[in-house]
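So, can you check this one?
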Amino acid sequence: MTQSPHRYMLAISLALTVAGCAETASLLEPAKIGSYAVKQDAPLSASLSPRIYVANESTNDVSVIDATTFQPIGTIPSLNHSTHDLAVSRDGRRLYASNLASGRISVIDTVKRETIASIYTGERCHVVALSNDDSQLWVANIGENTISIVDTKTFRILGTIPVAKGPTGLTFSHDGRFAFVSGQGDKTVGVVDTATHQVIKTIPVGANPHFMVVSRDGHVWGVNTGQNDIYVLDPETHEKVGTFIVGDKPQQIAFAFKGTSGSIAYVTVGSLNKVIGLGGDPSNLKIVDEIAVGEGPNGIWSNQEGTRLFVAHDKGNEIRVIDTGTGQTIATVPVGRKPIRVVVSR
């Protein structure tokens, strides 16, 4: 499969940012913090502390929350429709949001908290992933069965890669040599050589494979939202080396720690209103933790230390902050309607 040239024009848009602050709330017990509609405040300083970003699909915007105090900071309009997935740069200054209905990527300046560019990549652009050096943004377009490659300095599309039907998940290997793309139409994961832009292998995984993530040891983990299981791929052999039934409608995965049990893969399971923690070797997984959460758990992310989980509930319109040591919710933060994706800056 060959790379095709860019045929789309770049469109730049500017927006006013609705931002603000909220009253301080105690973290000693679960508490609603602030409200979704926060008032305008002064611009953020050039030095950013860690932030939680939440893509709200039905309100077409991104919620911004302080990752230390869990206070809401503001809301950023995407200037597009059906804001779905997010990728944050390693310096925390750029946020990229996919918009399903618009087929566009919103480029967000996180210091100014505003959308500074809107890039058409293809019909129903679904997920986004930054290359390991942040120089390229890869975008999966469900409606066109392609990956678009965007230059993050010029915001121009460098080319497109044909992939399997309905690409819905996308992640890079630790060394950056390979990209893994799940195809819901073919029930597969394609392995793309990032140097040649060729699909070098196709791996059967299950019904409606969706979001994927790379673990700390380099394994590729994914969920089959059309079934009830997750799968694990070896980063070297590109073979499926593990699978585990967690319950109907598994959504997303994040890695965190609990005690001395090592890295745990926490999976949001929509049908159970739970987060299921899996431990052990990928070929011999077992449930090591179960956490009851709110209605419709979907997006999940952890802090850098692996001591906190941030879980988005697409029916409850909130983020819950969970202490992995105790499994208790220590804060609940209102966000926009139908939050799908959560990411946290470093």
In short: Residues 1-46 have pLDDT under 50 and may be disordered. Residues 10-344 form a domain with the Methylamine Dehydrogenase; Chain H fold (CATH 2.130.10.10). Residues 302 and 309 are 4 Å apart (CA to CA). The chain is about 0% helix and 50% strand.
